[in-house]
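This entry is set out below.
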Amino acid sequence: MSTEQKAPVENGDDMPVDHSPSGQGNGMPTPTPAEFEQPPRRRLQQWLHRTSIFLFVLVSAVAGVLLVILPWTPQWGDNTFLVMFPALRTFVSNGFVRGLCSGLGLLDIWIGFWEAIHYQEKA
């Protein structure tokens, strides 16, 4: 064997470990500029996550607005689906049920916008 032996890798990969006496040698690998760029797969995942959040907020906002407005229109109780069920039509036309649907719509809008405001990029 030669007198120069390779030091065991402390961090589990083949990156050089900085053991300089300048105080910056904390045993962590020193990243190169190429490592700061994300791989294409990671960027795709990040854009898919952004798109899914955008679609969630959009669907929540639209569904919420529909649930807030629709119960108070004439089409809510006078539609072809409820003509065959008069008891269900009476129940759906009740003010409490309409208010409950509007409240769920407001909750839906709030959840969508809360998700948009508290969005954070994944590291």
In short: The chain has three helices and no strands. The CA atoms of residues 43 and 102 lie 39 Å apart. Residues 60-123 form one domain.
